[in-house]
Amino acid sequence: MTTSGSNRNNLLLLLSVFVIATCGLIYELIAGTLASYLLGDSITQFSTIIGVYLFSMGIGSFLSRYVQRNLLGWFIQIEILVGVVGGVSSMVLFFAFEHASGFQIILYGLIALTGTLVGLEIPLLMRILKDEFNFSELVSKVFTFDYIGALFASILFPLFMVPYLGLLKTSFFFGLLNVVVAIILCFVFGTAIRYLNFLRLQATLAAVLLLLGFVFADQIQSYTESISYNENIIFSKSSPYQRIILTSDRGVSRLYLNHNLQFSSADEYRYHEALVHPGLSRMKEPKNVLVLGGGDGLAVREVLKYPSVDSILLVDLDAVVTEMFSGSELLVQLNNGSLTNPKLKIINADAFLWLRENKRRFDFIIIDFPDPSNFSIGKLYTNSFYREIKRTLKPGGAFVVQSTSPFVAPQSFWCVNNTMLSVGFSTQPYHVYVPSFGEWGYVLGFSSLPAQPYFTPGKLKFYDEKRFTEMTSFPRDMAAVNTEINKLNNQILIHYFEDEWGRVQ
Amino acid sequence: MSGEEFNNHLHRRSFLKLGGLFLAGSALNACNYFQKPDSFKARIVGANSKTGHLLREGKFPEPSLTEELDTIIVGGGVSGLSAARWLKKKGIHDFKLLELDDGLGGNSRGGKNSISEYPIAAHYLPLPNENFHALIDFLSEHKVITGFDSSGLPIYNEDHLCFEPQERLFYRGIWYDGLPPKSGLMQEDQQALVRFLETMEKLKTRTGSDGLPAFTIPLELSSKDEEFTRLDTMTVAEYLERENYKSEFLSWYLSYCCRDDFGTSTENTSAWAMFHYFVSRNGRAANASSFDVLVWPEGNYFLVKKLSKGLDANLHTQMLSYKVEKEGERWSCYVYDIRKQRSIKYSCRNVILCTPQFVNKRLLSSFPGIQWEGFSYYPWVVANISLRNKKELNGMQDLSWDNVIFSSGSLGYVNACHQSFNNQDKTVLTWYYNFSERNAREEREAIYDKDEDHWKQFVLNDLKIAHPQIEELIEDMEITVLGHGMISPCKGFLGDPVRATLAKGIEGLYFAHTDVSGVSIFEQAFYQGIRAAEQIIERKGSYGT
Description:
The structure holds two protein chains of two kinds.
Chain A: H1 3-39, H2 42-63, H3 71-96, H4 100-129, H5 135-189, H6 196-215, H7 217-224, E1 232-238, E2 243-249, E3 252-257, E4 260-264, H8 268-280, E5 288-293, H9 298-303, E6 311-315, H10 319-327, H11 329-335, E7 344-347, H12 351-357, E8 362-368, H13 375-378, H14 383-392, E9 393-402, H15 410-422, E10 426-434, E11 438-446, H16 465-471, H17 492-504
Parallel strand pairs in A: 5-6, 5-8, 6-7, 8-9
Antiparallel strand pairs in A: 1-2, 2-3, 3-4, 9-11, 10-11
Chain B: H1 3-8, H2 10-33, E1 42-45, H3 49-57, E2 63-74, H4 78-89, E3 95-98, E4 110-112, E5 117-119, E6 125-126, H5 133-141, E7 145-148, E8 154-156, E9 167-171, E10 174-177, H6 187-203, H7 226-229, H8 236-242, H9 248-262, H10 271-279, E11 293-294, H11 301-307, E12 315-316, E13 319-327, E14 330-337, E15 342-353, H12 357-363, E16 376-377, E17 380-387, H13 390-394, E18 402-405, E19 410-415, E20 427-434, H14 440-447, H15 452-463, H16 470-473, E21 474-482, E22 487-488, H17 497-504, E23 509-511, H18 522-543
């Protein structure tokens, strides 16, 4: 090696320190960001991830003593590994979240692996360069590049990478950068390295893999459909019936079915308390409750607050939704594990078909279907459907229907009310303000309804009897309007709905 | 439909457009990400042409058995079953209905597979007119009508009233709601359509100088006033020309209607028949409008099953009637039993022929004095298509019950699972094509020897206009080739005296097939079956039981 060649090579190695430091920190930031999106509580997530990462770097440094020969070869090998592991980390984490129970293991496993590999690199590099510089110069140079890299990463990540590239592309990009460094080192140090061809092959394959990931990141991303969402998607899946997307943003989770918001964890209690308690609290000793739709288990959570209720039947079309809300840690926290309560039985079936076959009768029925935005759902708001409900209620029973916003869509809301009236029910329409939805409406159907509740559960976050008076009064801008009756052969409701919500969107 | 109504539905247009975009998007995705599955294989099924040829060749064994009975009904389509039902209802049990095919239904046959039942031909019934009591009673018997409101209007079972969305049209690259579409037409087309439909609407309340309604069902009860009957002396095309209609869309629409309802082109169809189609149906209901129709997964085969109820002992399938002749006071009906491979001679007092006249011509070969030439039947092809996933076919947009593709030669398709509450992805589409560009014989010859692969491509080419990706979504395609479809009421046919002769019957021989009236609709077949049965009951009065 000539002196100038040696200088150039030394600079190259120092630059690779810079790249390693940048990439390492980027991976750490990606993991931290994802974990806070996915699991909420960003302070805990970032603290634990930084801790695990730094500790793993320590393990790496410790392990570096066992590498005795072919230092440069090992250095390149590790560089490739860091590139691959870090590069695919965000993709792996996105997909891993579908199996939420194992997610944390995978998350910390990835962090530990990346940390260990990065931790191995700096000591190895210092040993490679130990003959080129005196000790104080070596330490000074390596750590200068290391910390500059860290600064660079920490500025680049929030200002450029996340907004312009997104998490997936960012991680593929930096993975690629790692591998490119490895490839350059392979070429520059060629003869000094053992197993050169093996490393070159690995590096090329890794580069191709990461490049493909980078190029198709949009497709991978669109698989999770985060394009349509401002928040980050932590779960997305297509069931045979719908697209299910769960997002998380600053600890608030939101569930979307076919791109329509179903709830936000920040205020869903308002929606679900208002759905369940005004009606159910007026039932005398209710025993059997039927919930149609509502596979998220949040309405069931409210129903379980009535000690007299000994059996709840949940009929939801989509097994993917009910399984997700029975199993995922995050979601089970939301519904208090209501879906695994022994009082509950879940049937995955189409509500209309199930209702027609059903012979059981119930004290109270909660109908929590998605808004009537298409013909299939529209059927579940027709007079034919409410006739089936009539047959399914015990004498003195009542049912409640979530019925879109009386403010945004008054015709739709009152159409539900009028359709219920048309099959011979008396109704009590009411509304509540849910911040993520706006003013929201429900209609209670019954043949008679006591003015006073028999039992209202304590410790509700929002609902009490005073609210009921408020909720049942409709100011002029939401006052009743005449509508047609929603029937299978006119599906007038989805026309109203499309018309009224179409104006808003 | 008024112009105002068109505008009211403008908002749907943008929605449907969005659906189109979504469709395009998902089509691209499908291209990129899904491996093309093996294409399905089409199958030809349907009326047993071998037995048909037996009839044409006329070589049958001598009868090994003679049976005497009161009445034989030949043909198990709607008119035959309606006659049988009526006889039974009136306490007459000594009759047999003989059907060539192995199933009943004629032009209202149905099929079934693991996904759904589906129609093979007729697939809907408009709400019957209020004064058609026999039909209203029949529908009440079978809970299609569940009751009557305080003003006497029938309350229909809402499971059977066609759900929204009922019809749509693929027009200039986009699906539009409604047929005719509620939006999307050029102004001239829309004006012409409104003018035409208003002309029809006004006639609904008109009566002729004889006090009869201008056009009604049963068709025989329509006015004979020359003001209306002279419409039979011109074709639909000639009528449009005379009335100075220039709209291309209206021509297409009426051509579609003529092919769909009469099995032939506007150049052939009698203008009277077209008027009858638009004017005669005024059914009212407590819970539906006169535009509503009754539909079932299996189409009108649903009604066939209801008509056959309780008649099992009288109905005999795979019985080929090959000769009907008079012997003294009685009629001899020669029948080849396909199952037992032997011939039987039925000696009876009455025969109701519920077979089309091209069959009767052969059955009654020794029976002079009837001119059969006016009866024309154009060929049809029906494809029953099992779809793996209807959502992928269409993106966000729901299928309608009836889906028509503008400027395609076909009549579009109906969705068998439309009335289902089941959210399954699979469905069966029944696609129809009527061959009537040339004369019926030429058309028949042209399609006679075509094989499955030909029809598969033929059907796909048509559907791909609106659904480029459809081939990948098809599991199965069942092709039914009908050499003779429904009767076509061509120009001058309704004024043809032969129909009146046939309708009267001849000493115990009665004709009930819809071709005697000239329009192939359920109501007419139902009515004519009853009429023939009543003719027998009246005649029985003269010879006793």
